[in-house]
Amino acid sequence: MFGRQFFIDPSRCIGCESCVNACAECDNHRGESMIHLDFIDRRQTIATVPFVCMHCDDPTCAQVCPADAIKKTDDGIVQSSLKPRCIACSNCVLACPFGIPKVMVRQEQMMKCDMCYDRTSVGKKPMCATVCPSQALSYVPLEEILLGRREKPTNVFFFGKQKVTTKVYMMVPETVDAVSVDVVDYMWEEQA
Amino acid sequence: MAKAPPHPELLVERYGPNPNYTPSGGWQKGSEAPPDHLVKTHCCFCGQQCGIQLKVRDNRVVGFEPWDEFPFNQGKLCPKGVKRYLQNEHPDRLLSPLMRAANGDFRGATWDEALDFTAQSLRAIQEKHGKDAVAIYGGASLTSEKSYLLGKFARVALGTRHIDYNGRLCMVSAGTAYKLAFGVDRSPNPWSDIPKAQVVLVTGANVAECAPITTDYLWRMRDNGGKLIVIDPRMTPITRNADLYLPVRPGTDVALMMGLLHVVIRDGLTKPKFIADHTVGFEAVEASVREWNPRKTAELTGVPPEAIEKAARLFGGAERAIALHARGIEHQSKGVENVLSLINLCLATGNIGREGAGCMMITGQGNGQGGREHGQKCDQLPGQRSISDPAAREHVAKVWGITPEEIPQAGLSAMEIMEAIHRGEIKGLLSICFNPLVSLPDSTYIREALEKLEFFGVVDFFLSETAHHADVVLAGSLQEEEEGITCTAEGRVVHIQQAVTPPTGARNDWEIYCDLAKRLGKEKFFPYQAPRQIFDELREASRGGIADYYGITYEKIDRDMGVFWPCPTEDHPGTPRLFEGARFFHKDGKARFVVAEYRPSGDPVTEEHPIYLTTGRVVSQYLSGTQTRRIGALVDQYPEPRLEIHPRLAEAHGIANEDWVKVTTKRHQMTIQALVVKTIRPDTVFIPYHWAGLRSANQLTHRTLDPRSKIPEFKVSACRIEKAAAPPEWSRASKAPGRSQRAPRRELRVIQ
Known about the structure:
The complex is a heterodimer of chains A (192) and B (752).
Chain A: E1 4-8, H1 18-23, E2 36-39, E3 48-51, H2 60-64, H3 91-95, E4 102-104, E5 109-111, H4 117-120, H5 127-131, E6 137-141, H6 142-148, E7 152-158, E8 163-172, E9 179-180
Parallel strand pairs in A: 1-8, 7-9
Antiparallel strand pairs in A: 1-6, 2-3, 4-5, 7-8
Chain B: H1 8-15, H2 26-32, E1 37-42, E2 51-57, E3 60-66, H3 79-83, E4 98-100, E5 106-108, H4 111-129, E6 134-138, H5 144-158, E7 163-165, H6 172-182, E8 199-203, H7 207-210, H8 214-223, E9 227-231, E10 244-246, H9 253-266, H10 272-278, E11 279-280, H11 282-289, H12 294-301, H13 305-317, E12 321-325, H14 327-330, H15 335-348, E13 358-361, E14 380-381, E15 385-386, H16 390-400, H17 414-422, E16 428-432, H18 436-439, H19 443-452, E17 455-460, E18 472-475, E19 484-487, E20 492-496, H20 509-519, H21 531-542, H22 554-560, E21 563-564, E22 591-592, E23 611-616, H23 632-637, E24 642-645, H24 647-652, E25 660-664, E26 669-676, E27 684-688, E28 717-723, H25 729-733
Parallel strand pairs in B: 6-7, 6-16, 8-9, 8-12, 9-10, 11-22, 12-13, 16-17, 17-18, 23-27, 24-26
Antiparallel strand pairs in B: 1-2, 2-3, 4-5, 4-18, 14-15, 19-20, 20-21, 23-28, 25-26, 25-28
């Protein structure tokens, strides 16, 4: 979209919740925040992590949806569920490897980050990435990130032999090419 | 009388703080109908003064839109900035003056009645007890126009020498030190210098929570290969990326700085030519740090000798280093000396007056810089002029149309005014933009002072806890309701636009003071029709002063996205960086090394009170909370004060996370819930101070002032702790902190 991409850099996050508050100001879902901000373990650390939807190339949430309610636009944005189709079954909530979708009780519908579709589709930056004081959430050209940052972006993740590629990038140490948190991904297993 | 009305719970019910969750017209309306227009202005909160666009519909602020083009923050906002618009159209808003009924309760009053009563009360006290028997309180959230007007009102309309402001709790230690060392009170570098430094040392500054936008400047410095040193008794959020963290013991900062300078000198990292050409006084400072070897410094400060060596070599070895500091080192009875010792380190290493090199104070309050430059500080006249300087008095008297002799001499500072009220010397007080019952130390003492006043008037838009004690409350205006200027932490003068007019029943602050001046028979000195006229007079009054605004106009600010002072003529581009070419503001052009010495805090730890207590802020609240405790999302983010305590200290007292803890100092005690964290020194506890009454951290703090800056020592008290037998009454009465208005926070789970 206009040459800019979305980058999450957890190491820059200061846990201020600007993104959480700003998300609720987005006209598509005013009053409801779609952002996840995790305090990892306040007893041990001040570290925090913000998460927007990663906008998977082949979204697991859509794969598991029994009502075919989750659609991806041509420009790669995975939208909230279609209200007339969604049965609020929570399959997507359970299946998403990143833990992003929420079933909104009041709306009886799954809603999630749509990368501020109303803003990004007309050339503006998403609300969260605009206000983020530490730019843990950034919406800038890829070249700017490659030139300017200590960390490097990746959009390849493994979840126990499930390879997921995403539109949103995660900033990782220079030596890392893909993110994997499951020991299975590091094992050799004989095919059955 | 100044006693609070008999039923405080009724006051809270009517006047709040009630959290406002939804914008005017509800959430959905904003999505359906577009705003009438967007107003490019600035946030009403901290000294960063981030650019923001307010969405206005039907003379109401209904939302915001980031202002990407404003260079300082480029659209970035902290959660306070995001939600600030919810203060507009707030159910707690004061919509008429209030006076007292016979039973002591507040009652609505007409403007004429309230203004007449205020003027008559002030005049009666002055006639009976002398002009200096009344005092004026101002605040650093006011525009510079209002700050200027207040200074003139005190000295011309009332003729009292006692005017001071809540900036006394903010920038005075830094200001005093910078004036001593450099001859001027302003951060010498623009923020754009931060990413250019090779090393940034942050001391006593919780940047992520109190100046959140500055975080990105620090991260960009690191992206460029720079190193970050953080000095703080707590690991604040910026510490997550610190290359070096020094957990200083509260109240020992000056020793740590001398220890650093000791190593710098020992290892030959000073810049002798710079010192010889551009400074005086190095030898005395050199002698003063001789004894502060790393071992001795470590014993006092609790920072390992190796870390002291490493920090000194990082800072002293860099070609370009910046020291950033804030209230952590300034809110102490040696706040000025702490800052001086940091300046000494910068001067000795030649880190000043260059791109990417300098000593920078982070101004805290919205107009903390501008608010102290133009006359509401007890010892200053407009243009950062000294009130005791005959030439300054003559210049300002001429602008004001009075004789120099008619300008009173310097008055008492904010805390000293409270002491003078206790002594019976000051009997009348008119306050705006200040909530001393929450923000000054030892709140019991402050309450007793307020109760002794014969007359207490307050101008405010919400009924603050301090205003509960007022005889008359004049319903004033919000930041977005009046045009004016502020000066940011960078020294950049910015333009606050009037986005909406005050609601019916409330009035512009400047008009309230002009109307009072009229009733005091001084109308001819206050002929203003609009803030622009006050600004034009301010420009003239500041002309030729240190903070020279003469060349700044509203139009020039809009065109250039702010103008840095000094700016002496209309074709002058402004001065983003001071001291270029190492020219300082003292007459000889040289900077001063000033010897600083360690001495104990005004409330030292003892066997009976063995733990350090320090206070500060959280990201979602601002100062005394008069505004932010009324904004729902910000309240939910941090609903009540919590006691940060290390597990080692907690376990020694049998305290678990969320247990209620009784904290006792020599003044008072309070009961507060524990937040057990490994991110604070085990000899120190921390309480944020934004709350009132039994939740107020300032019940516990002490009244010792820095002898020069008169700043209270909020950052160092002595306390003892014990597990409380039962939760306090207020915790049982208060509503459960409601996250219901917002999506629940996600429970963290391991991604599978």
